[in-house]
Structure formats: C-alpha cells, structure tokens
Fold these 2 entries.
Entry 1:
Amino acid sequence: MTCFLASAFLLVLQTYAAPPEFVQAGFDISLDPLDLDPGLLANVSGDVTSSPPPGTSKRAPHSIIIGVRKGGTRALLEMLDIHPEVAAAATEVHFFDWDENYAKGFEWYRELMPYSYPHQITVEKTPGYFTSALAPERICAMNSSIKLLLILRDPAERVISDYTQVYFNRLENHKPVQAIENLLVRNGALNIRYKAIQRSLYDVHMRNWLRHFPLEQIHIVDGDALIRDPLPELQKVERFLNLPPRIVSSNFYFNQTKGFYCIRSDGRERCLHESKGRPHPAVNSTVLQQLRSYLQEHNRTFFRLVKRTFDWQ
Ligand SMILES: *[C@@H]1O[C@H](CO)[C@@H](O)[C@H](O)[C@H]1NC(C)=O
Ligand SMILES: *[C@@H]1O[C@H](CO)[C@@H](O)[C@H](O)[C@H]1NC(C)=O
Ligand SMILES: *[C@@H]1O[C@H](CO)[C@@H](O)[C@H](O)[C@H]1NC(C)=O
Ligand SMILES: *[C@@H]1O[C@H](CO)[C@@H](O)[C@H](O)[C@H]1NC(C)=O
Ligand SMILES: CC(=O)N[C@H]1CO[C@H](CO)[C@@H](O)[C@@H]1O
C-alpha cells in the first residue's frame, strides 16, 4: 500500500519538476564529500563507452547499505566487495534521498549500478538514506523484499565523528569553523537541533524504516566490532545475504600506522581513504556527559525496537 503511494509519487515527480522547497524536505540531505574515496569513483560516462564484459548487465540492487553516516559504510562496502558474488556500486548514488535524483527515474538509477553476472548480487551504499524521511517508502516501492544493511556505532562517538568530518571539510574549503562545544550547546542546554545529534537518534529513524520493512529484512552491522575485528561481522552479512562463505581472515591485515585493518584481495592491498579514522577533538567532559545522557534514552528505545543491544559506552 505504502509502496504503491511511492510509485505514484515517482510518476508525479517525473511529470512535474519538484518545487524548490520540496527539494529541501527530508531529514538529511547534506552531501558527505569526504566519504567518497576519489580512488574509487567510477567514471560513469566512461563506463558507457567501454564495452561491458559479455554476460553482464546493470541490475537494480539486491541489497542497500542505508547508513548511518560516519558509521563505517565505506569500510563495510569495501570489505563486502571482497566477495566474488558481490558487485558494489562505486559511487554514493543518493537516489532515494534526493528528490532531484529520484525525479530522474528508475532507469537513471539502474544505469549507475555496476555490471554484474547473473549469479552476483548488486550492492549500493548511500549513508544518507537512513536519516531520510522518504527513502524507506521509495526503496520499498522498488523492491519490497530487498535486504537492507545498516551499520551503526556508538551514537555519541558518531556525533563527534560527524563534527570532525564537517570541520575538516570546512577547513579545506577555507570556511570558518567552530569548536564542537559551541555547536553542541546553546544557551547552556544541549542543542538538540544540531544535525549531528539528530542523525544519532537511531530510534527515530529506525521507526520510519520499520513502518515499511520487517525487522528481519534489516541486518544491523556493529560498526565498532567491524573495525576491531572485521571477519565475524562480515560472516554474519554473508549469511544474511545468503552468500556462500568466501571472505576469510587472510583478506585482512592490520596496518599499525593507520591503526586499523586494510584489505587484501585479488592480489591487491587497499586501505581506506585518508579521511577515515581521523583523530577526534577532545570534548569538554561536562558537555560530553550531557550528550551521552540525552542519547541514553534514545538508545534504550532503539534496543527495544531492534530486539538487540549494543555495547555502547
Ligand atoms: C571520464 O570519461 C570521459 C569520457 O571517456 C573522459 O573524457 C574523462 O576524461 C574521464 N574523466 C576522468 C576523471 O577520468
Ligand atoms: C528484490 O530483492 C530480493 C532480495 O535481495 C531479490 O531476491 C529479488 O531478486 C529482488 N527483486 C528484484 C526485482 O530485483
Ligand atoms: C599503512 O598505512 C600507512 C599510513 O597510511 C601507509 O602509508 C602504508 O602504505 C600502509 N601500509 C600497508 C601495507 O597497507
Ligand atoms: C566545560 O563546559 C562547562 C559549561 O558547559 C564549563 O563550566 C566548564 O568550565 C568547561 N570545562 C572545561 C575543562 O573547559
Ligand atoms: C551512548 C549512550 O548513550 N549509551 C547508552 C545506551 O543505553 C545504555 C542503556 O540502555 C547505556 O548503558 C549506555 O550508556
């Protein structure tokens, strides 16, 4: 029913240009440029001219990594891509969360998917989907039995990581920056309108997804565990996606300098982009405590919703 509404909505968008105020609707539409690893960006126009491997085609995703921003979505996609039966989209597509892209229609979306063999599954990741008000309904309209992957980490850590990314992004663009405390606190109270905090309210966003998908269709990856020890989390994902077990411990090696795991597969070694694993600023402990106690209630609600707990500090 809800899925049908979204399809109707897509038709409307294709017929009339969305009014500008509508384009701004939704929860989180800010681009996450540093989450795009330049080395991995596909040249989409180049892709069209080069001939695809025989027997392959571009297919709608069978699974989508929906978020969360700064949760480790890039790491998850890269690690999952080790699997020979996974074809990962190179770019963050932002189809379901940006109205201007959604209006381009489903064929536009499919064109951005990688070529894959019939035995492979296509996976796309766009971290903005998790906090988008419309993404669940739209994804459901495309494929109501799609398997969703959500990677989460401690919500307070995520806020600081979110801040850190924006901070470095602004520095690089010669824009003024603020101390994290000035964003977290307004007039002596926690500034709950701060977007980074809003994005960490996992219960609020999860409710929206559970209106359209049963819990069994959403597998939650523990982002903190994935960084500490990737293999067990990836084996759970293989099982969730009904993939034969192909990812093994020799696919990972610990890089002492970086302090996290890198990937070894097909005779190639690759680590995540420099923007990953940046040091976080030291946050005033009173303010951090305010943030943690605010998130505590939300994370309790979230644990109830997903019938599972996480080891968040
Ligand atoms: C992308 O492909 C087009 C057409 O093949 C080419 O002209 C362009 O230089 C490529 N861009 C990059 C960044 O490789
Ligand atoms: C929908 O997703 C499921 C689960 O990945 C997959 O088996 C099915 O083929 C998909 N349907 C379409 C039309 O892509
Ligand atoms: C380990 O990380 C450092 C720092 O980013 C990098 O220069 C080096 O190439 C990496 N080594 C391996 C084997 O991945
Ligand atoms: C932390 O912030 C509080 C106000 O929120 C302030 O009273 C306190 O002095 C700050 N502590 C430090 C170490 O800066
Ligand atoms: C980050 C955070 O707020 N963690 C809390 C989540 O909720 C549990 C209780 O359910 C607390 O113990 C954590 O401190």
Entry 2:
Amino acid sequence: MVKPVIFAICLGVLLSKALSIPLRSFADIELIGSQKSLFPFLGGSAPYFSFPANYGIPTDIPEGCRLTQVQMIGRHGERYPTRSEAKDIFEVWYKISNYTGKYEGSLSFLNNGYEFFIPDESLLEMETTLQNSIDVLNPYTEEMNAKRHAREFLAKYGKLMENCTNFPIFTTNSKRIYDTAQYFAEALGDGFNISLQTLSENSSSGANTLAAKSSCPNWNSNANNDILMSYSRDYLENISDRLNDENKGLNLSRKDAAALFLGVPSS
Ligand SMILES: *[C@@H]1O[C@H](CO)[C@@H](O)[C@H](O)[C@H]1NC(C)=O
Ligand SMILES: *[C@@H]1O[C@H](CO)[C@@H](O)[C@H](O)[C@H]1NC(C)=O
Ligand SMILES: *[C@@H]1O[C@H](CO)[C@@H](O)[C@H](O)[C@H]1NC(C)=O
Ligand SMILES: *[C@@H]1O[C@H](CO)[C@@H](O)[C@H](O)[C@H]1NC(C)=O
Ligand SMILES: *[C@@H]1O[C@H](CO)[C@@H](O)[C@H](O)[C@H]1NC(C)=O
Ligand SMILES: *[C@@H]1O[C@H](CO)[C@@H](O)[C@H](O)[C@H]1NC(C)=O
C-alpha cells in the first residue's frame, strides 16, 4: 500500500540572500543572471545554487526496490537580510551614499544611479517575491525557486502521488518559511488538497518542532567558533583598503567590507 506523502518544509537558518539588480540601462539587463560564478565566493550569501561537488545520497532507486513513500524536508529560499545583518549593511550604505566625491574604481558603477536594494525596512527578514523585488526581472526570487522546486518534485514523484491528493505540509511559524511552504503547495496545483500545518519555533515547543534552535537546550550557535577564528580575515582589510584607496575619504572599515558580502550590490 502506498503510504501518505508527508512533507516538511522547515528549518530556521538562512540559505541565501536577496539580490536584486536594479533596472537602469541596457547594459544592466545584460548583466541579469550573468554573475552566477560569483555565488560560491560570497560565504553563503548568494541566491541558491547547487553545490558543485558530489553531495548527498543518490536519488536513483536501488535495483529490486520499489519507491512507496517520499518525505521531503526543505528550507526557505532567498530572502532579504535579517535585522541584525541590516544594521551593518545600513552603516556601510550610509558611508557610501553620503560620500560626496565621484565614485572611482570598483564603486564606479554607483555613478550610474544605483538603487539601494532594500527600499523599505519592512522587507527585512522577508522572502523575495516577484512583488517585493525592485526588479521584476530578478531571476533569484524565493517565490520562483519554491515554485520551480514544486514542479521538479511533481515531475519526479507525481506518479507516486496519484492516489494521494489530501495531505498536510508542515511549516514553522517563521513567516519566510511559511511563505516558502505556501508557494511550494500552490505550485503543486489544483489537483491536491493540502493543509498547511504550523509548528512553532518557540522554546516552549520542546521536541514538537521542525526548527529545534530555541527549543533544544543543547543548541550552541558558537560551537565551531574556534574553527572559524582559525581562518584569516585579512582579505576584508584588503577590500576596505582597496576601496578607500580608490575613493579617498570613504573610510570603510573591515566590518564594512564584511557587510558588503551580506547583499549590498553584487552587480
Ligand atoms: C547619511 O548618513 C546618515 C547617518 O549617518 C543617515 O541618517 C542618512 O540617511 C545618510 N544619507 C543618505 C542619503 O543615505
Ligand atoms: C492508484 O490506484 C490505482 C487503482 O487502485 C492503482 O492501479 C494504482 O497502482 C495506484 N497508484 C499508485 C502509485 O499506487
Ligand atoms: C481537504 O482536506 C481537509 C483536511 O485538511 C478535509 O477536511 C477536506 O474534506 C478535504 N477536501 C476534499 C475535497 O477532499
Ligand atoms: C514561548 O516560550 C516561552 C518559554 O517557554 C513561553 O513563556 C511563551 O509563552 C511562549 N510564547 C508563545 C507565543 O508560545
Ligand atoms: C592583502 O594585501 C597584502 C598586501 O598587498 C598581500 O600581501 C596579502 O596577500 C593580501 N591578503 C589577502 C588575503 O588577499
Ligand atoms: C576619514 O578618516 C580621516 C582620518 O582618520 C579623517 O580625517 C576624515 O575626516 C574621515 N572622513 C570621513 C568622511 O569620515
């Protein structure tokens, strides 16, 4: 007998950031979607890309076996920066936007009417959607990503679901995760009767959660700090030095250079 298909779209940590390339000129249009090669170098701050090495368990069905059940666990997709990241981003943006000289060198693209990619603070923490993107041509919205994921899921497992049209999708109460689950469910189409079930991320949830950060007493965000600290951060100073040399008086700090990775222009 085919067991019900159960999905969980979950987990509270961030995958990738909102990047939107403002529409200014023909040259900008040509750049849209052309800078994927940068993504692996942004320290996780990039739209989703498939990790370029072998990863995970192959999804081919082993010989002699029959697939009877699929459980999918997903994350939220591209989002605007979090509130805490935004503090650093705004700080560097204020320095850059209050600079009175002509931008030189790597920052010279700002002379062409760059539009800051966070038009409104209410967008912080939110998923990127077609509606809240500055540029409707943004190819990296979470909305499109979740919907594409659903279509791929249907292509792969649709047959298995032919007798299973009523099922729940579980999500956490984080808005961006809820939104991802909803876009995924929507894109599965009218043939399914899906109930979206919300499980809280609050500490009071105990083990009844999909994102066990607050509710897991042993969770330690700093567990691997010693490993992180063993890597040099000189490259940040080099970046700020280079930008400051090109733009006298800009006075970017190492921290500012780090904030540039968090979503300030990648174009
Ligand atoms: C200039 O910087 C200040 C904070 O120091 C900020 O309040 C202001 O909005 C900035 N101006 C612009 C145009 O970004
Ligand atoms: C769905 O039900 C039909 C009729 O009982 C059956 O022939 C078919 O194999 C079922 N599909 C799956 C994927 O189990
Ligand atoms: C859809 O699912 C709900 C439970 O979430 C159920 O109450 C309802 O009867 C279902 N509707 C159909 C048409 O199967
Ligand atoms: C979250 O958990 C705390 C501590 O367990 C509890 O006091 C609070 O009422 C919970 N909040 C919600 C919205 O459930
Ligand atoms: C930083 O710049 C110095 C001086 O140019 C150079 O020797 C060093 O290799 C650079 N470090 C990194 C990480 O790029
Ligand atoms: C940049 O730093 C120099 C030296 O510390 C200082 O004289 C100058 O006022 C600063 N410029 C700005 C725009 O903060």
